[in-house]
Design a protein that fits this description.
CATH class: Mainly Alpha
CATH topology: N-utilizing Substance Protein B Homolog, Chain A
Radius of gyration: 14 Å
Number of helices: 6
Oligomer: single chain
Largest sheet: none
Shape: globular
Distance between the termini: 23 Å
Number of strands: 0
Helix content: 55-70%
CATH architecture: Orthogonal Bundle
Order of helices and strands: HHHHHH
Length: 142
Amino acid sequence: MLAFQTLYEVDISGHLPAAVLERLTGELRLDQAVAAYASELVAGIARQRRDIDELIGRYAPAWPVGQMSAIDRNLLRLGIFEAVYNSTTIPVGVAINEAVELAKLYGSENSPRFVNGVLGRVVAEHAQDHLPPNHLPGDIAG
């Protein structure tokens, strides 16, 4: 959640990610281990953002990345990074479920289904490029 909140604020305000993370960690009184993991996620997404946004555009062509809601856009960025680029830390199914649960909390009525569908298609075609062969879950798109 901390990584998502940071990505969202950075996206809509242009604030520096490190400053946002530090402020939110203090305000929420979070453990430094949580902040460190969130920082790794945010930094990884920043490194892979061009590729992640390209995947979003390819698998959600009716919604250009710059025109979709900031909540959905950042949940997709987080979910794609965790499921495709960081799946040795978080299992793919868990990454998708977490993104969908955040979509239920913060997104519109359609956000959970949209996030699940896009992540399911991305993972089905791209996660195998970054995962051991038996690491992919079954039908994750539902």
